[in-house]
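Exercise 3.2. Students should predict the tertiary structure of the chain below and write it as structure tokens, then compare their answer with the key that follows.

Predict this chain's 3D structure.
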Amino acid sequence: MTPAARLSAAIELIDTIDAQRVPAAKALKEWGTAHRYAGSGDRAAISGLIWDVLRRRASSAWLMEADTSRARMLGMLRLERKLDADAISALCDGGRFAPEPLSDGERTALTSRSLDGAPPHIAGDYPEWLDAHLADVFGDDRVAEATAMASRAPLDLRINTLKASREKMLPRLSHLGAQPTPWSAIGLRIELGADARNPGIHAEEDFIKGAVEVQDEGSQLAALLSAAKPGEQVIDLCAGAGGKTLALAAMMQGKGRLIATDHDKRQLAPIHERLSRAGIHNADVRTPKGDADPLADIHASADLVVIDAPCTGTGTWRRNPDAKWRMRPGALDVRLKDQAEVLDRASALVKPGGRIAYITCSVLPPENGAQVRSFVARHPEFAVVPPEQTASVLWDKAEDFAKAALQSPEGWLMTPRRTGTDGFFVSVLRRVG
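Answer key:
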């Protein structure tokens, strides 16, 4: 397919996503199935165009003064891909499979309009109802923070230290462009261009043998900040597919007791194969059965309970940009209730002197600092561990991390703009009473 034909296909797909209200990933998969002639490079390029349009949906429409699939595509090419009007016009020449030529109004918008004067939610590309929340945490920096959350994320890998080291894996994955992550001493990063295909990491021998796992550096840091230690009893209360479970197991060096569970047994399904591949033998996966409590035998005995809390996922907009446009205020209310419940549940599992690591992939204050303050008010036997103490596990990076991340009395907030990671909040609470 020519670049112009890819552009036409992407515009049509955006029309489909809008009209049928389907997730972009589903629409892309169905399009690929129906258009077998499109090669992997074509599919990657079309996917990249669509994800970038979703990332810059509001600002692109503002720039073009029209909220159509074509207008958003043209605006994105100017704002995100940095193409000038002539370059865009060359793609839209009206030829076979190419978009129609630019109108006089479109060319004028591309050459003379900018985001100057655009409201923050337009310039930052996020739903207007979230503006007050983002202003609360970022203030006048919210447009810059949100713009960074609209960028394409790299592919981050975590070294499974039970099987390998970063020094060993770096040359073995150099053909993928892997480089050390800035903060995590056990991470590798593969930067991805706008049209780049995701590297086939799942086909790599080192992945198949469990030496590396896909995990954002922010998620790696969240696990490290929990300070799980060999010999401890650790409970991963919202284990899901097991990303942080694997990281915790490596931190524990296979020593101690690691219990992984989740309220949704479907989420737990992949964890068994992942644990086996990683060579982890001290993990006890407890799948819920009916109304029975899978942790009924645990009473105030855990050294550490890790809560990878259900949240709005605002910190992962780089990887799932269409999710932010589907998000509604009611979703936040539901998540706040879920978080309070899982925190209360964790409180009964922790022994005196033990701790809870509360983690969200959200940047919204109600899910983060406010949720922690509410928990401590309900459970005065818990106190927040000062964030500067938790960062000490990052060793020589602790001081620089403290300068980069947002620190509050309740914990750390990482963001794409500040730390180059997904958005993660981490608070560690110790049972002192």
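Discussion points: The chain has 22 helices and 13 strands. The two ends are 66 Å apart (CA to CA).
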